[in-house]
């Protein structure tokens, strides 16, 4: 290279130098000495030095964002793990891009139902329905995967697959199972579960105001149900009513468009806005005896369905918390303040680690809960304890997630605000904290504190 081009290159280089920075640097190191030494290096040594220095500026590789800290997903069988990842991919691809829009408009994305059907995951724990993987652990993990992206979708699915199919599976006659379960499983038909009433919520075990009167082979139902998920478009609503003759609770399959059945959409919810909750009114609504759940004769039978699904709600809480934690972790690694990622601040790390601690405790708890269920050892108090713990901790996790995101934490587009709101619904439905606490309290003390 000619002397002239050497000078030209050096000049170009100096033009790029920030003299102020150079001044600061020269106070710390002897620049003249450094340059003297560098000038003695041959081409190979110079290339080595350049490589070393540029290597230092490589973007730091960060660990993966992973809310399953104790690798519970890895305890699944290979085919179960594959299904988990398939459902995760579905949620990320089909639901995540549309969820905030539907949530804001409080509408249900009906167009996704055929795609959900293709997953073939409804009622996977039920025997005799061609389910290759049938564990409650698998079912719980799938519920968690759904809620990790959207709790409304997971709730829609939980009503269909758990409360509705579960009622028919556990308490229906063979004819009823044959008529309804295949179509519910393939989502050709959609169901709803009507237990709660405007004036009877927590106290459903103590008596319902929905009345059923038998006359020959025909039952006449009168009363109201509130909060009934999927009710506005369901093909069948399972209505729980008190038999006026023996005062026991019975279940009825009330078909869409039955005269005397009216459903009004509940508006202005601040949580689970995609779930279509209905106020259901039955006025002299006639149901024939073959549409009464044949094995549901007292509230104890209804409770067998709730026991099975309550464990699922604990998994939903885990999904909600995990979605919020992962979104918050991602955000704090990207968001910079004072020239540094906020994830590098001690106080932010404290929030993240507290979130992960609770999340990990919740996950190990529900994994054991499902094992108990798979071993047919699950009791009401087992499910209640997990529902209380997980829904309580979820509230804490989502509020920390929102906190570390500052103002953006309350914007829907940052994918945490929705979890904050939805955690409130999980906290209350399928038994409030108080009711589930009383169930556990009764079991461990031997004294019922129910009033
Ligand atoms: C989004 C959403 C979806 C739902 N979906 C359905 C559905 O599909 N089908 C369905 O049937 N129901 C559904 N529900 C109803 C849900 O199960 C009830 O909201 C829940 O059981 C609580 O009843 P409640 O709201 O009437 O509250 P209440 O029973 O009026 O309770 C109010 C407060 O009093 C407390 N409390 C009540 N009794 C006691 C006591 N003995 N001791 C101490 N404290 C007490 C409760 O814990 C609570 O804090 C849904 C609810 C929500 C929010």
Annotation keywords:
binds flavin-adenine dinucleotide, Butyryl-Coa Dehydrogenase, subunit A, domain 1, 3 domains, alpha+beta, two-stranded antiparallel ribbon, 451 residues, seven-stranded mixed beta sheet, 54% helix, Butyryl-CoA Dehydrogenase, subunit A, domain 2, single chain, Butyryl-CoA Dehydrogenase, subunit A, domain 3
Task: Please provide a written account of the structure.
With 451 residues, the protein is of the alpha+beta class. The protein has helices spanning 3-16, 19-28, 31-39, 43-56, 78-105, 113-119, 136-149, 151-171, 174-185, 299-334, 346-374, 380-404, 417-428, 433-445; strands spanning 191-194, 211-215, 218-229, 236-243, 249-255, 261-265, 277-288, 336-337, 340-341. Strands 1, 2, 3, 4, 5, 6 and 7 form a 7-stranded mixed β-sheet that branches. A two-stranded antiparallel sheet has the order 8-9. Strand 4 and strand 5 (249-255) form a beta hairpin. The protein starts with a helix and ends in a 6-residue tail after the last helix. The mean pLDDT is 93.
